[in-house]
Amino acid sequence: MQFLFVTLKSILSAGGNDMGVVKVYFADGTDREESIAVINRGLDARQKMLHRVLLERGVYPDSDFSSADLRGAFMSRGAFSSSNFNEANLTVAFLDEADLRGATFVGAKMRSTNLGGAVLVGANFTGADLYACNMKKADLRGATMWALDLQGIELEGAIFNSETKWPPGFSPAERGALDDQSG
Questions:
Q1: CATH of 42-183, one of 2.160.20.80, 2.60.34.10, 3.50.50.60, 3.40.50.80
Q2: Residue 105, SS3?
Q3: Whole-angstrom Cα distance, residue 74 to residue 155?
Q4: HEC string of 21-87?
Q5: Is the pLDDT confidence value at 6 over 80?
Q6: Cα separation, 19 vs 146, whole angstroms
């Protein structure tokens, strides 16, 4: 059955255990709800199908989205600091202007993902597929950019520093990124 989108419906607290509820809407007009555990202020969405989920402007630090299907997710301007996106599918997702400080994207699929203006200080993209990813005006200071594919990555106006780790031979300045000399 083909689904249209997923929304985060609520976060419930009961007896010290927090649960998030997502609502999945299907193309045939039906819908269903699914629970997601909330741990340490963050969501436990490991291996969840969250295609086109709406988490814009939400505050979900320390969340675990590892191996989740977040294709086409709307997470713009959200706060996801120190969250785990390892092995997640973020193809064509919208994370523009999101706070992703210290987030990990190891092995993530991020083709054509919009990270324009995002705060990615200390983020780790080791082994991520960043083909045609928009990182215009993103803050990449201290980020590890050892991605599988940096072809077509858009870096105009992005900020990096001496702590930012790039693959050998890759020149972010040639793509329009700006070196923050302050370190």
A1: 2.160.20.80
A2: coil
A3: 21
A4: EEEEEECCCCEEEEEEEEECCEEECCCCECCCEECCCCECCCCECCCCECCCCECCCCECCCCECCC
A5: no
A6: 35
DSSP tag of 116: T
Please tell me the least confidently modeled range out of 24-33, 54-63, 135-144: 24-33
Q: Is the pTM of this model over 0.85?
A: no
Q: What is the mean pLDDT of the chain?
A: 84
Q: Supply angle C-alpha 157, 160, 165, rounded to 5.
A: 135
Element (H, E) at 17: strand 17-26
| Residue whose entry in the numeric block shows the structure tokens 């629970």 | 35
- Checking if the pLDDT of 30 tops 80, the result is no
Q: What SS3 class is residue 13?
A: strand
Classify the C-alpha dihedral 149-154-155-158 as positive or negative: negative
Would you list the domain boundaries of the chain?
A: 42-183
Spatial neighbors of 9 by CB under 8 A, at least 6 apart, are 20, 21, 22, 23, 33
Confirm if 138 and 158 have CB atoms less than 8 A apart.
yes
